[in-house]
Amino acid sequence: MAAQVFPLDHTGRSLREDIAALQSLGPAVKVALPDGITAWSVTKHEQLKKLSEDGRLSRDAQQHWPGLPDVPEGWPLAPFLISPTVLNAYGSERHRLRKIMEEAFTPARLDVLRENLRHRVPRLLGSLGAPGSLVDIRAEYAQVIACETLCDLFGVPQAQWPDAVAAMRNLLSPAEEADQASAQLESAMSYLGALLSGKRDLPGEDMATTLAQADMTDEERVLALAVTIAGGVPATTELITNAACNMLRHPEQLAAVRSGETTWSAVVEETLRFDAPVQHMPLRYAVEDIDLGEGTVIRQGDPVLMGFGAGGRDPQAHGDTADVFDVHRPNKEHVAFGHGVHYCIGASLGRIEASVALQALFASFPHMELAEPDQGLRPLPTFLFNGKAQLPVRL
Ligand code: HEM
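# protoporphyrin IX containing FE complex -> structure
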Protein backbone atom coordinates (compact mmCIF):
# COMPACT_ATOMS: atom_id res chain seq x y z
CA MET A 1 0.00 0.00 0.00
CA ALA A 2 1.39 3.47 -0.90
CA ALA A 3 2.25 5.54 2.19
CA GLN A 4 -0.01 8.51 2.90
CA VAL A 5 1.57 11.85 1.82
CA PHE A 6 0.88 14.74 4.21
CA PRO A 7 0.26 18.09 2.46
CA LEU A 8 2.78 20.24 4.36
CA ASP A 9 1.94 23.96 4.17
CA HIS A 10 5.01 25.61 2.61
CA THR A 11 3.95 29.16 3.49
CA GLY A 12 4.72 28.66 7.19
CA ARG A 13 1.24 29.83 8.21
CA SER A 14 0.18 26.40 9.54
CA LEU A 15 3.53 25.36 10.99
CA ARG A 16 2.16 24.55 14.46
CA GLU A 17 -0.94 22.73 13.22
CA ASP A 18 1.10 20.71 10.70
CA ILE A 19 3.63 19.69 13.33
CA ALA A 20 0.96 18.61 15.82
CA ALA A 21 -0.68 16.50 13.10
CA LEU A 22 2.64 14.96 12.01
CA GLN A 23 3.57 14.09 15.61
CA SER A 24 0.32 12.18 16.00
CA LEU A 25 0.79 10.18 12.80
CA GLY A 26 3.88 8.05 13.51
CA PRO A 27 7.67 7.98 13.90
CA ALA A 28 8.08 9.43 10.37
CA VAL A 29 5.49 10.60 7.86
CA LYS A 30 5.82 11.23 4.13
CA VAL A 31 5.26 14.91 3.33
CA ALA A 32 4.97 16.82 0.06
CA LEU A 33 7.77 19.37 -0.45
CA PRO A 34 7.53 22.10 -3.12
CA ASP A 35 7.02 20.79 -6.68
CA GLY A 36 5.60 17.51 -5.44
CA ILE A 37 8.90 16.04 -4.24
CA THR A 38 8.25 13.81 -1.21
CA ALA A 39 10.39 13.29 1.88
CA TRP A 40 10.00 11.61 5.26
CA SER A 41 9.26 14.15 7.98
CA VAL A 42 10.60 13.42 11.48
CA THR A 43 9.15 15.57 14.28
CA LYS A 44 9.40 13.57 17.52
CA HIS A 45 12.12 14.54 19.96
CA GLU A 46 13.58 11.07 20.62
CA GLN A 47 13.36 10.02 16.98
CA LEU A 48 15.13 13.23 15.88
CA LYS A 49 17.98 12.47 18.29
CA LYS A 50 18.20 8.82 17.26
CA LEU A 51 18.21 9.50 13.53
CA SER A 52 20.71 12.38 13.82
CA GLU A 53 23.15 9.89 15.38
CA ASP A 54 22.46 7.23 12.74
CA GLY A 55 25.32 6.83 10.26
CA ARG A 56 22.82 5.41 7.74
CA LEU A 57 21.59 8.95 7.04
CA SER A 58 23.77 11.12 4.81
CA ARG A 59 23.58 14.79 3.75
CA ASP A 60 25.37 14.10 0.46
CA ALA A 61 22.71 14.31 -2.26
CA GLN A 62 25.17 13.56 -5.07
CA GLN A 63 26.20 10.27 -3.48
CA HIS A 64 22.98 9.17 -1.82
CA TRP A 65 19.87 10.72 -3.43
CA PRO A 66 18.79 9.00 -6.64
CA GLY A 67 16.03 11.64 -6.98
CA LEU A 68 18.54 14.52 -7.36
CA PRO A 69 18.47 14.58 -11.21
CA ASP A 70 14.67 15.11 -11.09
CA VAL A 71 14.92 18.24 -8.93
CA PRO A 72 13.58 21.15 -11.03
CA GLU A 73 15.80 24.15 -11.73
CA GLY A 74 15.35 26.86 -9.11
CA TRP A 75 13.81 24.45 -6.57
CA PRO A 76 13.46 26.47 -3.34
CA LEU A 77 15.39 23.91 -1.25
CA ALA A 78 18.20 23.55 -3.85
CA PRO A 79 20.63 25.89 -2.00
CA PHE A 80 20.75 23.31 0.82
CA LEU A 81 21.64 20.38 -1.43
CA ILE A 82 24.96 20.30 -3.21
CA SER A 83 27.65 22.73 -2.11
CA PRO A 84 30.95 21.14 -1.03
CA THR A 85 30.64 22.31 2.57
CA VAL A 86 30.42 20.73 5.99
CA LEU A 87 26.62 20.86 5.61
CA ASN A 88 26.47 18.29 2.82
CA ALA A 89 29.67 16.29 3.17
CA TYR A 90 29.58 12.67 4.31
CA GLY A 91 32.05 10.41 6.15
CA SER A 92 35.74 11.38 6.11
CA GLU A 93 35.05 14.47 3.93
CA ARG A 94 32.61 15.80 6.53
CA HIS A 95 35.13 15.09 9.29
CA ARG A 96 37.91 16.97 7.44
CA LEU A 97 35.81 20.09 6.74
CA ARG A 98 34.19 20.13 10.19
CA LYS A 99 37.55 19.91 11.98
CA ILE A 100 38.84 22.97 10.12
CA MET A 101 35.65 24.97 10.83
CA GLU A 102 35.70 24.07 14.53
CA GLU A 103 39.15 25.68 14.92
CA ALA A 104 37.45 29.05 14.37
CA PHE A 105 35.11 28.58 17.35
CA THR A 106 37.53 27.94 20.23
CA PRO A 107 36.43 29.03 23.74
CA ALA A 108 39.13 31.73 23.73
CA ARG A 109 37.82 33.23 20.47
CA LEU A 110 34.24 33.07 21.72
CA ASP A 111 35.27 35.01 24.86
CA VAL A 112 36.74 37.75 22.67
CA LEU A 113 33.60 37.86 20.50
CA ARG A 114 31.42 38.14 23.64
CA GLU A 115 33.48 41.03 25.05
CA ASN A 116 33.56 42.85 21.70
CA LEU A 117 29.79 42.49 21.40
CA ARG A 118 29.28 43.84 24.93
CA HIS A 119 31.29 46.90 23.96
CA ARG A 120 29.43 47.43 20.67
CA VAL A 121 25.88 47.03 21.94
CA PRO A 122 25.55 50.39 23.78
CA ARG A 123 26.32 52.31 20.55
CA LEU A 124 23.75 50.25 18.67
CA LEU A 125 21.13 50.76 21.37
CA GLY A 126 21.87 54.47 21.37
CA SER A 127 21.14 54.64 17.65
CA LEU A 128 17.77 52.87 17.93
CA GLY A 129 15.91 55.95 19.14
CA ALA A 130 14.64 57.68 22.26
CA PRO A 131 12.24 55.95 24.65
CA GLY A 132 8.78 56.04 23.06
CA SER A 133 10.08 55.69 19.45
CA LEU A 134 8.62 53.03 17.19
CA VAL A 135 11.34 50.58 16.09
CA ASP A 136 11.49 47.24 14.29
CA ILE A 137 13.72 45.30 16.68
CA ARG A 138 14.21 42.47 14.18
CA ALA A 139 15.73 44.58 11.36
CA GLU A 140 17.39 47.31 13.40
CA TYR A 141 18.78 45.31 16.30
CA ALA A 142 18.69 41.50 16.03
CA GLN A 143 19.87 41.28 12.43
CA VAL A 144 22.54 43.94 12.91
CA ILE A 145 23.98 41.99 15.85
CA ALA A 146 23.91 38.74 13.85
CA CYS A 147 25.72 40.29 10.85
CA GLU A 148 28.26 42.35 12.80
CA THR A 149 29.20 39.42 15.03
CA LEU A 150 30.08 37.46 11.90
CA CYS A 151 32.20 40.40 10.67
CA ASP A 152 34.08 40.10 13.96
CA LEU A 153 34.29 36.28 13.76
CA PHE A 154 35.62 36.43 10.19
CA GLY A 155 38.17 39.15 11.02
CA VAL A 156 36.75 41.80 8.66
CA PRO A 157 38.64 45.09 9.19
CA GLN A 158 36.28 47.48 11.02
CA ALA A 159 36.18 50.02 8.16
CA GLN A 160 34.84 47.32 5.83
CA TRP A 161 31.96 46.14 8.02
CA PRO A 162 29.31 47.95 5.94
CA ASP A 163 30.64 46.21 2.78
CA ALA A 164 30.72 42.83 4.52
CA VAL A 165 27.17 43.28 5.84
CA ALA A 166 26.03 44.24 2.32
CA ALA A 167 27.67 41.05 0.99
CA MET A 168 25.87 39.00 3.65
CA ARG A 169 22.53 40.57 2.73
CA ASN A 170 23.15 39.89 -0.97
CA LEU A 171 23.82 36.27 -0.16
CA LEU A 172 20.79 35.85 2.07
CA SER A 173 18.15 37.87 0.20
CA PRO A 174 18.93 37.80 -3.50
CA ALA A 175 16.70 39.81 -5.86
CA GLU A 176 13.82 37.99 -7.54
CA GLU A 177 15.12 38.86 -10.99
CA ALA A 178 17.57 36.08 -12.07
CA ASP A 179 20.31 38.28 -13.61
CA GLN A 180 20.34 40.62 -10.65
CA ALA A 181 20.38 37.69 -8.20
CA SER A 182 23.35 36.08 -9.92
CA ALA A 183 25.23 39.42 -9.98
CA GLN A 184 24.57 39.79 -6.23
CA LEU A 185 25.79 36.25 -5.56
CA GLU A 186 28.92 36.84 -7.61
CA SER A 187 29.66 40.08 -5.81
CA ALA A 188 29.17 38.46 -2.36
CA MET A 189 31.43 35.54 -3.25
CA SER A 190 34.11 37.82 -4.65
CA TYR A 191 33.96 39.91 -1.46
CA LEU A 192 34.55 36.75 0.62
CA GLY A 193 37.33 35.61 -1.74
CA ALA A 194 39.11 38.96 -1.37
CA LEU A 195 38.79 38.81 2.42
CA LEU A 196 40.45 35.37 2.43
CA SER A 197 43.27 36.49 0.10
CA GLY A 198 43.94 39.50 2.33
CA LYS A 199 44.52 37.16 5.28
CA ARG A 200 47.50 35.53 3.52
CA ASP A 201 49.44 38.82 3.80
CA LEU A 202 47.88 40.03 7.03
CA PRO A 203 46.82 37.08 9.19
CA GLY A 204 44.80 37.57 12.37
CA GLU A 205 43.10 35.58 15.12
CA ASP A 206 39.96 35.00 13.11
CA MET A 207 37.99 32.53 11.00
CA ALA A 208 39.11 33.86 7.61
CA THR A 209 42.76 33.36 8.67
CA THR A 210 42.00 29.85 9.95
CA LEU A 211 40.47 28.97 6.58
CA ALA A 212 43.19 30.75 4.57
CA GLN A 213 45.85 28.67 6.34
CA ALA A 214 43.96 25.35 6.23
CA ASP A 215 44.52 22.50 3.81
CA MET A 216 41.48 23.07 1.57
CA THR A 217 40.64 24.44 -1.87
CA ASP A 218 39.84 28.12 -2.48
CA GLU A 219 36.25 27.15 -3.35
CA GLU A 220 35.91 25.26 -0.05
CA ARG A 221 37.23 28.31 1.83
CA VAL A 222 34.75 30.75 0.31
CA LEU A 223 31.88 28.32 0.75
CA ALA A 224 32.83 27.71 4.39
CA LEU A 225 32.31 31.44 5.01
CA ALA A 226 29.08 31.40 2.97
CA VAL A 227 27.62 28.45 4.89
CA THR A 228 28.52 30.17 8.16
CA ILE A 229 26.58 33.25 7.04
CA ALA A 230 23.61 31.14 5.90
CA GLY A 231 23.68 29.14 9.14
CA GLY A 232 24.38 32.03 11.49
CA VAL A 233 22.59 35.20 10.40
CA PRO A 234 18.93 34.15 9.97
CA ALA A 235 18.88 31.75 12.93
CA THR A 236 20.45 34.24 15.34
CA THR A 237 18.18 37.03 14.10
CA GLU A 238 15.11 34.86 14.77
CA LEU A 239 16.40 33.67 18.15
CA ILE A 240 16.84 37.24 19.46
CA THR A 241 13.55 38.38 17.89
CA ASN A 242 11.51 35.42 19.16
CA ALA A 243 12.96 35.71 22.67
CA ALA A 244 12.26 39.47 22.83
CA CYS A 245 8.72 38.87 21.62
CA ASN A 246 8.13 36.13 24.22
CA MET A 247 9.35 38.44 27.00
CA LEU A 248 7.08 41.27 25.85
CA ARG A 249 4.14 38.90 25.76
CA HIS A 250 4.88 37.58 29.27
CA PRO A 251 5.66 40.59 31.50
CA GLU A 252 5.50 38.44 34.65
CA GLN A 253 8.32 36.25 33.28
CA LEU A 254 10.30 39.34 32.29
CA ALA A 255 9.89 40.60 35.87
CA ALA A 256 11.31 37.28 37.12
CA VAL A 257 14.42 37.77 34.95
CA ARG A 258 14.78 41.37 36.13
CA SER A 259 14.52 40.36 39.77
CA GLY A 260 17.22 37.71 39.34
CA GLU A 261 14.78 34.87 40.03
CA THR A 262 15.77 33.44 36.64
CA THR A 263 18.31 34.30 33.94
CA TRP A 264 18.59 35.49 30.34
CA SER A 265 20.16 32.20 29.44
CA ALA A 266 16.99 30.45 30.71
CA VAL A 267 14.98 32.75 28.40
CA VAL A 268 17.21 31.79 25.49
CA GLU A 269 16.85 28.05 26.19
CA GLU A 270 13.07 28.24 26.60
CA THR A 271 12.84 30.23 23.36
CA LEU A 272 14.93 27.58 21.59
CA ARG A 273 12.56 24.90 22.92
CA PHE A 274 9.28 26.72 22.32
CA ASP A 275 10.10 28.91 19.32
CA ALA A 276 13.06 27.28 17.55
CA PRO A 277 14.32 29.43 14.67
CA VAL A 278 15.11 26.46 12.42
CA GLN A 279 11.94 24.40 12.12
CA HIS A 280 12.91 22.07 9.28
CA MET A 281 16.40 21.17 8.10
CA PRO A 282 16.64 19.88 4.52
CA LEU A 283 17.70 17.15 3.66
CA ARG A 284 19.22 13.82 4.68
CA TYR A 285 19.12 10.58 2.62
CA ALA A 286 18.96 6.94 3.69
CA VAL A 287 22.17 5.14 2.73
CA GLU A 288 20.32 1.85 3.40
CA ASP A 289 16.85 0.82 4.59
CA ILE A 290 16.06 2.11 8.11
CA ASP A 291 13.27 0.35 10.02
CA LEU A 292 11.73 2.76 12.58
CA GLY A 293 9.18 0.24 13.88
CA GLU A 294 5.41 0.76 13.88
CA GLY A 295 5.47 -0.44 10.25
CA THR A 296 7.55 2.54 9.06
CA VAL A 297 10.59 1.81 6.90
CA ILE A 298 12.65 4.59 5.31
CA ARG A 299 13.92 3.02 2.09
CA GLN A 300 17.46 3.41 0.75
CA GLY A 301 17.68 6.68 -1.23
CA ASP A 302 14.60 8.25 0.39
CA PRO A 303 15.06 11.89 1.50
CA VAL A 304 14.39 12.85 5.13
CA LEU A 305 13.39 16.29 6.47
CA MET A 306 14.37 16.79 10.10
CA GLY A 307 11.81 18.84 12.02
CA PHE A 308 14.25 19.99 14.70
CA GLY A 309 11.95 22.82 15.78
CA ALA A 310 9.15 20.38 16.48
CA GLY A 311 11.27 18.38 18.95
CA GLY A 312 10.92 20.99 21.70
CA ARG A 313 7.12 20.99 21.37
CA ASP A 314 6.79 17.20 21.50
CA PRO A 315 4.22 16.27 24.22
CA GLN A 316 6.08 12.98 24.74
CA ALA A 317 9.10 15.02 25.87
CA HIS A 318 7.34 17.96 27.59
CA GLY A 319 3.87 16.72 28.52
CA ASP A 320 0.64 18.71 28.32
CA THR A 321 2.41 22.08 28.67
CA ALA A 322 4.70 21.57 25.66
CA ASP A 323 2.89 24.43 23.87
CA VAL A 324 3.29 26.90 26.76
CA PHE A 325 6.21 29.37 26.99
CA ASP A 326 7.46 29.03 30.57
CA VAL A 327 10.92 30.22 31.48
CA HIS A 328 10.60 28.47 34.86
CA ARG A 329 10.11 24.95 33.49
CA PRO A 330 12.92 22.74 34.80
CA ASN A 331 13.29 20.66 31.63
CA LYS A 332 13.92 22.86 28.58
CA GLU A 333 15.47 20.13 26.47
CA HIS A 334 15.34 20.73 22.70
CA VAL A 335 17.13 19.86 19.48
CA ALA A 336 16.93 23.38 18.07
CA PHE A 337 20.64 23.23 17.16
CA GLY A 338 20.26 19.79 15.62
CA HIS A 339 22.04 16.81 17.07
CA GLY A 340 24.84 14.36 16.29
CA VAL A 341 27.62 14.88 13.76
CA HIS A 342 26.04 17.95 12.11
CA TYR A 343 25.21 19.65 15.44
CA CYS A 344 25.27 23.42 14.91
CA ILE A 345 28.84 24.66 14.86
CA GLY A 346 27.74 28.12 16.05
CA ALA A 347 25.51 27.01 18.95
CA SER A 348 27.70 28.57 21.67
CA LEU A 349 28.13 31.77 19.70
CA GLY A 350 24.39 32.03 19.02
CA ARG A 351 23.65 31.61 22.73
CA ILE A 352 26.21 34.30 23.61
CA GLU A 353 24.79 36.75 21.06
CA ALA A 354 21.21 36.24 22.22
CA SER A 355 21.99 36.56 25.95
CA VAL A 356 24.09 39.71 25.53
CA ALA A 357 21.60 41.29 23.11
CA LEU A 358 18.52 40.62 25.26
CA GLN A 359 20.05 41.65 28.55
CA ALA A 360 21.24 44.99 27.13
CA LEU A 361 18.02 45.70 25.20
CA PHE A 362 15.70 45.21 28.19
CA ALA A 363 18.07 47.09 30.53
CA SER A 364 18.16 50.09 28.17
CA PHE A 365 14.41 50.25 27.55
CA PRO A 366 12.62 49.19 30.74
CA HIS A 367 9.22 50.35 29.43
CA MET A 368 9.45 48.76 25.98
CA GLU A 369 6.21 47.19 24.72
CA LEU A 370 4.82 45.60 21.57
CA ALA A 371 3.77 48.44 19.27
CA GLU A 372 0.23 47.20 18.68
CA PRO A 373 -1.23 43.85 19.54
CA ASP A 374 0.18 41.58 16.82
CA GLN A 375 1.04 44.40 14.40
CA GLY A 376 3.79 43.19 12.07
CA LEU A 377 4.03 39.80 13.78
CA ARG A 378 3.26 37.88 10.60
CA PRO A 379 5.16 34.59 10.39
CA LEU A 380 8.04 34.40 7.93
CA PRO A 381 6.62 33.01 4.69
CA THR A 382 8.41 29.66 4.88
CA PHE A 383 8.13 26.33 6.68
CA LEU A 384 11.92 26.18 7.16
CA PHE A 385 12.36 29.11 9.55
CA ASN A 386 10.17 30.17 12.45
CA GLY A 387 10.17 33.88 13.03
CA LYS A 388 8.33 37.12 12.46
CA ALA A 389 8.58 39.39 9.45
CA GLN A 390 9.06 42.30 11.89
CA LEU A 391 9.04 42.96 15.62
CA PRO A 392 7.70 46.53 15.94
CA VAL A 393 8.03 47.84 19.51
CA ARG A 394 7.54 51.14 21.29
CA LEU A 395 10.86 51.71 23.10
C1 HEM B 1 21.42 31.07 17.23
C2 HEM B 1 20.64 30.24 16.68
C3 HEM B 1 21.01 29.08 15.79
C4 HEM B 1 20.22 28.01 15.58
C5 HEM B 1 18.84 27.76 16.18
C6 HEM B 1 20.92 27.13 14.67
C7 HEM B 1 20.43 25.91 14.24
C8 HEM B 1 21.12 25.02 13.44
C9 HEM B 1 20.61 23.73 13.02
C10 HEM B 1 19.24 23.16 13.35
C11 HEM B 1 21.57 23.14 12.27
C12 HEM B 1 21.48 21.79 11.58
C13 HEM B 1 22.04 20.71 12.50
C14 HEM B 1 21.83 19.32 11.94
O1 HEM B 1 21.51 19.17 10.74
O2 HEM B 1 21.99 18.35 12.74
C15 HEM B 1 22.70 24.06 12.22
C16 HEM B 1 23.87 23.82 11.54
C17 HEM B 1 24.83 24.75 11.34
N1 HEM B 1 24.91 26.00 11.92
FE1 HEM B 1 23.58 26.79 13.23
N2 HEM B 1 22.13 27.68 14.35
C18 HEM B 1 22.24 28.88 15.03
C19 HEM B 1 23.34 29.73 15.00
C20 HEM B 1 24.46 29.55 14.23
C21 HEM B 1 25.58 30.44 14.19
C22 HEM B 1 25.72 31.71 15.03
C23 HEM B 1 26.45 29.93 13.26
C24 HEM B 1 27.78 30.44 12.81
C25 HEM B 1 28.39 31.49 13.27
C26 HEM B 1 25.88 28.69 12.75
C27 HEM B 1 26.48 27.89 11.80
C28 HEM B 1 26.03 26.63 11.46
C29 HEM B 1 26.72 25.74 10.53
C30 HEM B 1 28.01 26.06 9.78
C31 HEM B 1 25.98 24.56 10.48
C32 HEM B 1 26.31 23.30 9.68
C33 HEM B 1 26.99 22.29 10.62
C34 HEM B 1 27.23 20.93 9.99
O3 HEM B 1 26.49 20.52 9.08
O4 HEM B 1 28.19 20.24 10.43
N3 HEM B 1 24.67 28.50 13.37
N4 HEM B 1 22.41 25.18 12.94
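# post-check
The domain at 5-394 is CATH 1.10.630.10 (Cytochrome p450).
Residues 52, 86-87, 98, 227-228, 231-232, 235-236, 239, 277-278, 281, 308, 336-340, 342-346, 349-350 surround protoporphyrin IX containing FE (CB under 6 Å).
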